Amino acid sequence: MKKPLLTTCAVSLFLSAAFVHVNAQTTKVFEVDAAHIKAHVQPTMYGIFFEDINMAADGGVYAELVKNRSFEFGTALAAWTEHAKDGGAGSLEVIDRTGERPENPHFLTIKNNSNTGYYGLSNEGFRGMGIKKGETYSFSVMARQHAGSTLKLSVELTDPQGKVIGTAILNPIGTTWKPYSVKFIANATVDKASLTVWTKDAGSIDLDMISLFPQNTWKSRPGGLRADLVQKLYDMHPGFLRFPGGCIVEGRDLANRYQWKKTIGNIDKRENIINRWNVEFKHRPTPDYYQTFGLGFMEYFQLAEDIGASPLPILNCGMACQFNTGQLVPLDQLDPYVQDALDLIEFANGSKATKWGKLRTQLGHPAPFNLKMMGVGNEQWGEQYIERWKIFVKAIKDKYPYMKLVTSVGPDPDGGKFNLLNTTFRGLNADFLDEHYYRAPKWFLDNVKRYDSYDRSGPKIFAGEYAAQSKAIASPDNKNDWNCAMSEAAFMTGLERNADVVNMASYAPLFAHVDAWQWTPDLIWFDNLRSYGTPNYYVQQLYSLNKGTDVVPVTLNNETVTGQDGLFASSVLDKNLGSVIIKIINTGSQAQSADVVVKRIKGLSPNAKVTTLQSSDLTAVNSLDDPRKVSPKISGVALSGSTVKLSLKPYSFTVIRIATTK
Ligand code: AHR
Predict the structure, then answer these.
(1) Closest ligand 1 atom to 246 CA
(2) Residue/partner pairs of 540-543 with CB below 8 Å, 24 or more apart
(3) CA–CA dist 192, 159 (Å, integer)
(4) Per-residue model confidence as pLDDT tens digits over 194-216
(5) Measured CA distances, 421 to 294, 408, 415, 418 (Å)
């Protein structure tokens, strides 16, 4: 009797194993109805959030190599070290002329007391200076000699061992401030070089705005942006560029807020302030983090234009960061803040007959920047925000009815703060609600249907800041791993399916210096010479390059694909190019056999382009040394009639693109 029983168990185990096996191999049939347009995809749909956090601007995309170039840091000689050689001697003094130049109060006096040897100072750069062999560098300085002094300046770039890798000489003349510059070529590639300015023989000289830029900047603009980093932004084909943040808009207190008018015109007239992220995290102190605003509002508008993105500035609404001091401007004193917003619109769009349009013209851009959107406050909440918002919106809409305004619904995608603002601003007919979600990867999977039930006639959604957090929000242990990126890709099918409601979305933050970051995860990481896109970057890029123009349904067993067997999907038409695009995310550990059947469209090309972003290791990350470990791979697949037969790899994001003859 025992034997048959054992045999029955064995058979049943075998059958159940076989069933699981067959189930995993069951071909999933995705049906795309290409004739059923469900929503229009806005050209702005996938964009960029920029904030000067993690040394994104100074020390990052702003290509200046000298840190504390105008001696405005809290410790005036921060980043500078005194040097003497061959018997040289002297002193360095930082002079304060606040009364005369409040926006740039400090300058340096070098007193060389010796007729032998050399005396001067060196700058450490932003965690070193990235220098490339054979490239041209431009050294510049404001200088004036003291009476009777004829000090020459000799400039040396050195590697960490002290070997000179580039030199130049300048001869400042006269006792009035004048700009001087000289170009030279570096003879070695070094990621942590430093710059020394020497004087020889006795004399005294005043120096300010000591600067070193690569000539090879984005579009070769003097004093411009780091070309490799801007290229990465350009390669995303972003729909918009949000700027300047982020909490930096608000400041830790109101004095520390972002003021756009102080960021345009001559760079030596742009008042430097401490960067709010300098002291934000005890676990990541960055005492050498200031804002020079070399990347200011003119450069911002120019950058947006260069990369084909609509500008989306976010302005302070009379509130400092509510995570910090939460200082408030009294309602009856809001006028200057409101005026800043109105003037920014005139600066961007006004003709040269207007005050601010004239200034833009004088700064080299007669054509308007076509500003259509603006944010009122960053991540504000509470009644205080609602009161201030109403004043801003009335003033802006009265003068510029065409402006679409972005409204905060607080730092969380749910809870009390969110509910109050969401209900209130829906009642007040806000244009865009700015939702933020820094959440666990699972939240992203669980929330793929978030927008399915949103009011189709209410405000549009701007998913203005989001990123999956592998550990916890603001944890220094968060990684840009494939699990996070894949969960974002799955969630984004929900954004895309609901493109009639969700009009804009951006990952945040954007940039991080590997030696100077405060916040992780981030989209693009860099050191002084190199940069890489994270798996999350490639997710954003694939969505942006394949955003199409119109949403069409893709179903599995007649249902929207929102996680069945770990699968997520969305599809669009690109009417401009005549293509059908299907995005499928397989979040499961098993490959899935899939037939993608495209219905009700004529002239399908016999071949589909298939782009796959995949790793079988959910903890996989990209790095400076392995920048494309998780990156898109392209292949071609022949159609069988109107069906694309695929094996969806485990943990994969697949984009299928089929052209049509139309
Ligand atoms: O992206 C980092 C910060 O997160 C932003 O500055 C802020 O808006 C959010 O809290």
Answers:
(1) 6
(2) 540/46, 540/236, 540/507, 541/235, 541/236, 541/237, 541/632, 542/489, 542/583, 542/611, 542/613, 542/632, 542/653, 542/655, 543/45, 543/46, 543/489, 543/492, 543/496, 543/583
(3) 7
(4) 999 999 999 999 999 999 999 99
(5) 35, 8, 10, 5
pLDDT, tens only, 131-169 = 999 999 999 999 999 999 999 999 999 999 999 999 999
Q: Whose CA is nearest to atom 8 of ligand 1?
A: 246
Q: Are strands 90-96 and 106-112 parallel, antiparallel or unpaired?
A: antiparallel
**In the block, which residue shows the tokens 């608000």?**
250
Q: For residue 457, is pLDDT > 80?
A: yes
- Residues near 156 by Cβ (< 8 Å), separated by ≥ 6? 164, 166, 167, 195, 196, 198
Share of the chain above pLDDT 70, in %: 96
Ligand 1 mutation target, pool 52, 276, 378, most atoms within 8 A of CB = 378
pLDDT digit string, tens, across residues 304-354: 999 999 999 999 999 999 999 999 999 999 999 999 999 999 999 999 999
Catalytic amino acids?
Answer: 379
Amino acid at residue number 303: L
Look up tokens 């040396």; give the residue: 156
The alpha carbon of 76 and the centre of ligand 1 are apart by a number of angstroms equal to: 29
604-632 pLDDT per residue, tens: 999 999 999 999 999 999 999 999 999 99
Angle at Cα 173 formed by Cα 171 and Cα 174, nearest 5°?
Answer: 160
- Start-end of H helices in 380-528: 383-399, 416-427, 441-446, 482-497
**Could you tell which of 379, 409, 511, 536 is best to mutate to test the pocket of ligand 1, judged by most ligand atoms within 8 Å of the CB?**
379
Bridge partner list, 153: 170, 199
Write out pLDDT tens, residues 94-135. Answer: 999 999 999 999 999 999 999 999 999 999 999 999 999 999
Q: Is 411 in the pocket of ligand 1 (CB under 6 A)?
A: yes
* Ligand 1 site, residue 381, Cβ cutoff 6 A: no
d(CA 325, CA 319) in angstroms, rounded, equals 9
Q: Kindly give the interhelix angle for 355-362 and 335-349, rounded to the nearest 10 degrees.
A: 50
Rounded to the nearest angstrom, the gap between the alpha carbon of residue 361 and the centroid of all alpha carbons in its chain is: 27
pLDDT band at 662 (very low <50, low <70, confident <90, very high): low
Report which ligand 1 atom has the smallest distance to the Cα of 245. Answer: 6
Identify whether the C-beta of residue 478 lies closer than 8 Å to the C-beta of residue 521: yes
DSSP letter, residue 523 = S
Distance 564 CA to ligand 1 centre (A): 33
User: What are the start-end ranges of the H helices in 251-354?
Assistant: 297-306, 335-349
Residue 8 has pLDDT above 90, yes or no: no
Q: For the segment 408-456, what is each residue's pLDDT rounded down to a tens digit?
A: 999 999 999 999 999 999 999 999 999 999 999 999 999 999 999 999 9
Which uninterrupted H or E stretch holds 654? Answer: strand 652-660
The DSSP string of 52-114 is: S-SSSTBTTTB----TTTTS-SSSTTTTEEEEEETT--EEEEEEE-TTT-TTS-EEEEEEE--
The gap between the terminal CA atoms of the chain, to the nearest Å, is 71
Chain centroid to CA 175: 43
Is residue 48 within a helix (H) or strand (E), and if so which, with residue range? strand 48-49
CA distances from 417 to 58, 89, 268, 398, 449 (A): 33, 61, 41, 28, 22
Cβ(263)–Cβ(70) under 8 Å?
A: no
Q: Which residue has the tokens 């109805």?
A: 33
- Read off the tokens for 121: 């100072």
